Amino acid sequence: MHLSQAARLLELFTLHLAGNHPSEQMEELDLFECTFSESEVKRFLGALKFLYRISSTLLLEAFPEKLVLRSINQNQSAYTRVEFGRDFFESYFTRETNHPSIQCGVLLKSCLAAFRTAHAVQSVSLAIDSSVSVLRFQLSCAQGVNKP
Measured on CA atoms in the order 97, 130, 93, 83, is the torsion positive or negative? Predict the structure, then answer.
């Protein structure tokens, strides 16, 4: 994918991150759901921090076989991509759609804020909600505390 195409994709997506869904389980309308454990949280957080050096915007693309994170700087002179295969996750699910991937754009600062207490996280659930353009993180922490 060329830089101009990646920039165009980033422009097309709503930049929205919501964490106000208190339900403990992912909703039925989610197009994409994945869960990763405590040992993978540092690797995922490291990837987010790396992408934040390039741009403040993140494009997530969920394919049936992998999750791709992309960012491009405002001048379109730098582009980076990080891929996580489905074996990185404890669970990984994408619903059938008319498109080859499920895409969502968000502000990286919001994603990083969700992981502020990464040292106490035991597992993370990530979902893209199909009813509204929302990327949802749910962190399960020590002693059964859940942070939506």
Answer: positive
Closest CA to 62 of 25, 89, 28, 24: 89
Q: Is 121 helix (H, G, I), strand (E, B) or coil?
A: strand
CB distance 72 to 10 below 8 Å: yes
Element (H, E) at 86: none
Q: Which residues contact 137 (CB under 8 A, 6 or more apart)?
A: 19, 111, 114, 115, 124, 125, 126, 148
Using DSSP, state whether 19 is helix, strand or coil.
coil
Q: What is the pLDDT along the chain (148 residues), one digit of tens a residue?
A: 444 444 343 343 323 333 333 333 444 457 899 999 888 988 999 999 999 999 999 999 999 999 999 999 888 899 999 999 999 999 999 888 777 888 888 899 988 988 887 677 888 899 987 557 788 888 887 766 665 5
The full set of domains in the chain, from first to last, is 3-147 (3.70.10.10)
Question: Angle at the Cα of 10 (from 87 to 52), degrees rounded to 5?
Answer: 65
* pTM higher than 0.85: no
